[in-house]
Automatic annotation (TrEMBL):
<keyword id="KW-0285">Flavoprotein</keyword>
<keyword id="KW-0560">Oxidoreductase</keyword>
<dbReference type="GO" id="GO:0050661">
    <property type="term" value="F:NADP binding"/>
</dbReference>
<protein>
    <recommendedName>
        <fullName>Flavin-containing monooxygenase</fullName>
    </recommendedName>
</protein>
<dbReference type="Pfam" id="PF00743">
    <property type="entry name" value="FMO-like"/>
</dbReference>
<dbReference type="GO" id="GO:0050660">
    <property type="term" value="F:flavin adenine dinucleotide binding"/>
</dbReference>
<dbReference type="InterPro" id="IPR020946">
    <property type="entry name" value="Flavin_mOase-like"/>
</dbReference>
<keyword id="KW-0274">FAD</keyword>
<comment type="similarity">
    <text>Belongs to the FAD-binding monooxygenase family.</text>
</comment>
<dbReference type="InterPro" id="IPR051209">
    <property type="entry name" value="FAD-bind_Monooxygenase_sf"/>
</dbReference>
<dbReference type="GO" id="GO:0004499">
    <property type="term" value="F:N,N-dimethylaniline monooxygenase activity"/>
</dbReference>
<dbReference type="InterPro" id="IPR036188">
    <property type="entry name" value="FAD/NAD-bd_sf"/>
</dbReference>
Length: 519
């Protein structure tokens, strides 16, 4: 069944896309490919497309899932140089894809959307935007908003580090004007970004102090190179590329089993990874029992994201590198003191301390139906429908929103599924002459009940009622299954002028409950 391309009177909706990273580019392309819609605008805060792949330029930044999973299924990249590629190659791919589909013509670069407010009388979203370079500002009306700014937008910088008087920056805001050569450098954080940075800069600096209270499980990366023969086969023998990408898609998706509590279907998978991480530590640190103990996690496997690296453990053995497991207690000038009494004078401090997703939705940024400040109304417990639709926010679609965080797969796979859900919803609006679609609260509550129940089978921590339900409970394949149908009966709808809204749903209301999940 094809998609409707316009309303019955031949007009098309105006659509605003927030962000020109993986999500925004995907949304813009699919609006063109699937609906032949060109009545959209993309608002991008940065000076170019790419999102987090544009902003994160720290040394060693690279993909942490097989590179071909970072290319869209509808826009393959046959020329990636390795299985795990540097940031520059992912960014080059996104730029090239945006140019191929003429997305740049629709993008307002260096333009920040400072607020989004629903106008009930006009049935439109009013977006207030500001040009960061000139200060110019204005309003933009949109029938539909696709919010693709993502969760990796605002760095998390703990306030206690404000006391540091040397050069300091977050990994996502790398200061390339400062030369690290011969400097005393500290890196706070030993998750994926921290490990990549430490492994890359150690040979350039005089000393490197690594602060990480909780080590992560590390497995071998085995970063193979794709030579010209492989690239030729990928490009010209299409079934080879399709087979190769499909294999990695489902192999990576199967690693969700690591995040299930010990059960018959996950026990073997977890046992294998436990052994691989132990063997990796032993082979790379065979004669250093003290260091091996320092890098051995004391928590359950996969409670934090597993990191792939062949360089981190050898780096820690270098004479100018020191790993600190005890917490930082005092920061004074350029001196950092840990609980054990160790004091280190530093010239530069790098914070690999993650991101603050709540800052994506500050007070007054997102005002929905009835003047509801949606994010403020959430508090610490966001309420969405599969991380995509939100009550009080008609005609609004989040891409990679709360409740569907994934840690085992490339985000591109999830993003494509959410974008296609938004495409199906927009097509339904066009076909049925619908002015507004708003997810029902009861549908959201049913989803959250299922989330709370299913998440208990995993090792993710969920906070029922008072705490944040951040993660998707299952595989990306299961997410596809849940999102492949629109289920228009789960939405409140209003028709355009002269249309009876009660007649807009597909057929009679089903006798069953409007939303029913099965395990």
């Amino acid at each position: 069944m094809g998609f409707a391309k316009s309303f019955k009177d031949g007009t098309t909706p105006s659509i605003a896309i927030i962000g020109a990273g993986l999500s925004g580019i995907c949304a813009a392309i699919q609006l063109q490919r699937q609906l032949q819609l060109t009545t959209y605008k993309v608002f991008e805060l940065e000076a170019d497309v790419g999102g987090t792949w544009f902003r994160n330029t720290y040394p060693g930044c690279q993909s942490d899932a097989p590179a071909h999973l970072y290319s869209y299924s509808f826009a393959p990249n046959y020329d990636f140089s390795k299985k795990f590629v540097p940031q520059s190659e992912v960014l080059a791919y996104l730029r090239a894809t945006a140019k191929t589909y003429n997305i740049y013509d629709k993008i307002l670069l260096q333009t920040r959307v400072s607020s989004m407010q629903w106008n009930e009388g006009r049935k439109k979203w009013i977006l207030h935007w500001v040009k960061s370079a000139t200060g110019e500002e204005g309003d933009h009306e949109a029938d539909v908003v696709i919010h693709g700014a993502g969760m990796l937008r605002y760095p998390k910088v703990p306030k206690e580090f404000d006391a540091f008087k040397g050069d300091m920056w977050h990994s996502a805001r790398w200061n390339h004007s400062v030369d690290l050569t011969g400097k005393r450098v500290g890196v706070v954080g030993t998750s994926a970004s921290g490990i990549q940075i430490v492994s890359t800069i150690a040979d350039r600096v005089e000393s490197l102090e690594v602060y990480g209270r909780s080590p992560v499980y590390v497995t071998p990366q085995l970063n193979i190179t794709y030579n010209r023969v492989w690239q030729f086969l990928f490009r010209h023998v299409y079934f080879i590329y399709t087979l190769y990408r499909t294999f990695w898609y489902y192999y990576v998706d199967s690693t969700i089993l690591l995040y299930h509590k010990l059960a018959w279907f996950s026990a073997f998978h977890r046992a294998v990874v436990y052994f691989v991480t132990w063997l990796h530590r032993f082979l790379q640190l065979p004669f250093d029992n003290d260091l091996r103990r320092k890098v051995t996690p004391d928590y359950e496997l996969a409670t934090r994201r597993i990191v792939l690296s062949d360089k981190f453990f050898p780096t820690l053995k270098k004479p100018n590198v020191t790993l600190h497991r005890d917490p930082i207690v005092t920061i004074s000038g350029g001196t950092i003191e840990t609980k054990s009494g160790s004091k280190c004078e530093l010239d530069i401090l790098v914070l690999a301390t993650g991101f603050d997703w709540i800052s994506n939705f500050p007070v007054g940024y997102w005002i929905g139906r009835g003047g509801t400040d949606i994010a403020t109304n959430w508090g610490e417990s966001p309420t969405t429908y599969y991380g995509t639709c939100v009550p009080k926010a008609p005609n609004f679609f989040l891409i990679w929103g709360p409740n569907v965080g994934i840690v085992h797969h490339a985000l591109t796979s999830l993003i494509e599924l959410q974008v296609m859900y938004a495409i199906r919803a927009i097509s339904h609006m066009l076909e049925k002459d619908i002015a507004t679609m708003e997810i029902k609260q009861e549908a959201v509550e049913k989803f959250l009940e299922t989330l709370d129940r299913r998440i208990q089978r995993t090792i993710f921590t969920t906070k029922v009622r008072s705490k944040c339900r951040g993660f998707w409970w299952g595989s990306v394949t299961e997410f596809w299954w849940k999102m492949k149908d629109l289920h228009p009966e789960r939405f409140h709808v209003e028709g355009r002028e002269g249309v009876n809204a009660k007649s807009l749903l597909n057929g009679p209301r089903p006798e069953r409950e409007p939303f029913e999940e099965v395990d």
